[in-house]
């Protein structure tokens, strides 16, 4: 917990990262709200708010009396979401700037390929 974003968002992102890197596979159990709160030294309500973001997004689901689990298809859902965020944050501004500079799409693609090859 180190940036200016709300802690509950950071909790949700950390769980997402673990799902994406495979350390928390689909259908695996997620740490409990109390475990998350104790680990991060935060209020359980804050941890719950972060987990609920992922429940609302369909990434996690609750099994009554057992706990929270990673939903089937969660990794694909997160990858699609993160790719969409990447497109909006990086690709769209890049294309807009390239257009301003008179760089056509084919030249831009060639530039990207050359840069990726370095």
Automatic annotation (TrEMBL):
Keyword Transcription recorded: yes
UniProt-recorded Gene Ontology molecular function terms: DNA binding; DNA-binding transcription factor activity
Pfam family, one: GntR
Assigned keywords, A-Z: DNA-binding, Transcription, Transcription regulation
Transmembrane segments: none
Domain HTH gntR-type stretches: 5-73
Protein name, UniProt field: DNA-binding transcriptional regulator YhcF, GntR family
Organism: Demequina mangrovi
Lineage start: Bacteria, Bacillati, Actinomycetota, Actinomycetes, Micrococcales
């Amino acid at each position: 917990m180190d940036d200016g974003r709300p802690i509950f968002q950071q909790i949700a992102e950390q769980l997402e990262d673990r799902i994406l890197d495979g350390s928390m596979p689909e259908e695996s159990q997620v740490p409990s709200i109390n475990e998350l709160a104790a680990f991060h030294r935060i209020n359980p309500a804050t941890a719950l708010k972060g987990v609920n973001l992922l429940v609302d997004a369909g990434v996690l689901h609750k099994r009554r009396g057992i706990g929270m689990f990673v939903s089937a298809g969660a990794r694909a859902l997160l990858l699609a979401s993160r790719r969409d965020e990447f497109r909006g944050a990086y690709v769209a501004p890049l294309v807009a700037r390239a257009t301003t500079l008179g760089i056509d799409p084919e030249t831009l693609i060639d530039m990207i390929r050359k840069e990726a090859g370095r």
